[in-house]
């Protein structure tokens, strides 16, 4: 998924962790380059084997940013 909202990223990570899905947030340090204005989205990546379950967990919780 991809979003510019850091609260959605944090919520999504907690949901995924609760289901035993490891995730990794990419583009975290872009905020330093952009001045913290939220221009560049951050991405949460999961393993290919967890993708189906991760999408289901996020969709069940009304998180659909960039899925």
TrEMBL record:
Where in this chain does the record put each DUF2007 domain? 2-60
> SUPFAM superfamilies given for it?
GlnB-like
What superkingdom does the record give?
Answer: Bacteria
- Write the protein's name: DUF2007 domain-containing protein
């Amino acid at each position: 998924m991809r979003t510019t909202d850091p609260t959605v990223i944090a919520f999504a990570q907690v949901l995924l962790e609760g289901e035993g899905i490891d995730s990794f947030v990419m583009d975290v340090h872009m905020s330093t380059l952009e001045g913290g204005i939220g221009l560049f989205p951050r991405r949460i990546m999961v393993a290919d084997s967890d993708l189906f379950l991760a999408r289901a967990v996020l969709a069940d919780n009304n998180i659909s940013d960039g899925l």
